[in-house]
Prior knowledge:
With 77 residues, the chain is an alpha+beta fold. 31% of the residues lie in helices and 25% in strands. It has 2 helices and 5 strands. A hairpin with a 4-residue loop joins strand 4 and strand 5. The radius of gyration is 11 Å and the shape is globular.
Amino acid sequence: MLIEIESVYGDKIVHGKHIKQDELKKIVKNLISTVGEENFTTAFCLRYDYQEVACSQDIIIDYVIDLDTHLILKPKY
Length: 77
């Protein structure tokens, strides 16, 4: 599963196990309230065993987490 994390602190793409959208919403809400937006990507990767991957326009993303609006979006290709 590939997730793009958009943030004023830098956009990242992370890869790891599949997470359902409802569960991902809970995870995002919990992490933002406990570690904040600045440390979100690091905490997410450590807690859920995700790895950062190189950004590329050719990658098909499963979900986008927008930390500025706290939304989770499913891109349509």
